[in-house]
Amino acid sequence: xxASIVGVLIYAFVxxxxxxxxxxxxxxxxxxRKGPSIFQAFYDFFKLMSKESLTPNVTSPLLFNLAPIxxxxxxxxxxxxxxxxxxxxxxxxxxxxxxxxLLAIPPIALILGGSASGSPYGAIGAxxxxxxxxxxxxxxxxxxxxxxxAAGSFQLNTISATAWISVLPLAAIAxxxxxxxxxxxxxFDIAEAPTEIVSGPYVEYSGPNxxxxxxxxxxxIFLYASLIAAVFFGTAIYHFQPAVNFxxxxxxxxxxxxxxxxxxxxxxxxxxxxxxxKYYWTIxxxxxxxxxxxxxxxVRYMHFLFGWAGL
Amino acid sequence: MADVNERGFANLKVPIGPSHPALEEPAxxxxxxxxxxxxxxxxxxxxxxxxxxxxxQERPFSKVVYLVERICGICSHTxxxxxxxxxxxxxxxxxxxxAKYIRTIYAELERIHSHMLWAGIAGEEIGYHxxxxxxxxxxxxxxxxxxMLSGNRIMHGCNRIxxxxxxxxxxxxxxxxxxxxxxxxxxxxxxxxxxxDSNIAERGKGVGSLSREDAVRLGAVGPNARASGVPEDTxxxxxxxxxxDFDLEPQTAKDGDVxxxxxxxxxxxxxxxxxxxxxxxxxxxxxxxxxxxxIPAGRSVGRTEAPRGELIHYTETNGTRFFERIKIxxxxxxxxxxxxxxxxxxxIADIPIIAASIDPCFSCTDxxxxxxxxxxxxxxxxxxxxxxx
Lengths: 311, 389
Fold this sequence. Notes:
The structure holds two protein chains of two kinds. Chain A is mainly α. Helices cover about 70% and strands about 0% of the residues of chain A. Chain A contains 15 helices and no strands. Chain A is globular, with a radius of gyration of 19 Å. By secondary structure, chain B is α+β, with helices and mostly antiparallel strands. Chain B has a single domain (about 50-335), classed as Cytochrome-c3 Hydrogenase, chain B (Orthogonal Bundle). Chain B is about 45% helix and about 15% strand. In chain B, the strands form four sheets. A three-stranded antiparallel β-sheet of chain B has the order 1-2-3, with no helix packed on it. In chain B, a hairpin with a 5-residue loop joins β7 (about 310-315) and β8 (about 325-330).
């Protein structure tokens, strides 16, 4: 039990940081660059951990220093609940609602830390993060609830027994569509926006605090993609040796992140805050709602179309 | 002190600069924002005074050419070009045709790389790093071309009083032509990437617009004025160097917003590539330099079209080896007032792209500001010379 918990936590840490290295290399290659080393996120993390953490004197120190810890702690907990490279969660049955709440904590930590930092950039960044969170959580939650209703359970262990993309493809599209916003990269890096608000909430953070805040964000990208992979692609594929399972899962996440985060990041500029709401509340939310309504009305269109995978 | 809006809240004041990721040069803007909307703006320049004008008066003629070249790293040809034309005007030196053509070639290549640089920076400001990487990669071709022609990428040292220093060989012209043909297709690609992108259109349409009346009233120059529909191009109006031999049409757009600025600059990019090709093809034979005896006392003022707009040099000589006075008005200084109507009412997200849209070069603008006891002071020429202010 303890060994598997430690194993999952180490896997999540290493995978999240490696994922950043791979994402940066993918983006670099689409920009005719070589890009940094694949281990760059590790170098950055350990360098920052060895530095001094400063607390500006205009801040609320408790909130300011708590935010990074909150961010990482919630993500480590989520790593134990989401089925990572296994058909079961490391701990318990895996409650979907709890995971959705935990995945919202790193942005909330950013909002708290940004507001507490006493910098106007942090305050604007926090306001933008709120807008971004509301925008992408809506289609994501509708999609997840649709799946939970279809599965008849909120337990991830039950839900992930089926590859739900074959039953509810529109909900899957809606959930995958929220990946770039959850990763907060272009076009949705509005809360950081280095050229506009100097990295927003991050601006007053330094040293270990900054490292933890970033680690929380990186873990979130990995776990968010893992949740989508577990729910929509199922966990039935993980029936090999643990090492092979880890490789398979990591490959799926890398594909998701390269195709839907790195590709968008490389091919678009930063969008405006007002457009994010409009963007996520129209097509992705509609797709998720259509699937929800069709499912509740008893229409199994995938069954009609292809004659398979119907429940 | 903080202004209070109608709901009783103090507006947030967001400083941008003098050191900020969106501005690579020192200028300070203080924005008063209501939510994400800018309601007031104040700007301050003068962080990078380098005593260029004073230094010009302390050096012999031959060295001043190299000094004015170092005013700007991007307009490193048009400053000395304007300067030597002023001196030649005072001393009545007739420059050979071939030298005029070579000067024009450098001036147009400079415009090409400057406009490419602008397109990249504008992409960077809205977070479009791929556009930045692409345009700057193509821009390297122009820099390599400069290196082939003059031996230097940035400081060409091409101009000198009475002509130019570097001749252009037959093979150089030939390989330059092939580079220009390549750049022509690259310019088409950049234009397509900028104008077909829905995100750029959404970020740029109606953002930072400047009406024709405002552009004229605030004295905007160069592409900034042309984007607002003012057909003002010093190359066409003054016909300096070899520009008189070619029919140039000032490239204009209507709205003065970011998209209009991009339209004008991309059209000029194409125009400059065409013009450079024509110049290489019609390069006249002959010497590239004439001798001159001495520079008499006199004064001259003239304009050239820098990539950022109209550049004014005023030069006064007194019959010695030194200049009596040199006054330089760089184009960005004329364009800064047009920031105010552009910024008012915009979103915070649009500040960097609007700031970048006029292609600012703040460091080049700082000539002389004397502030004593918190008040700005006007300084007479005599005080300036003796240094007792």
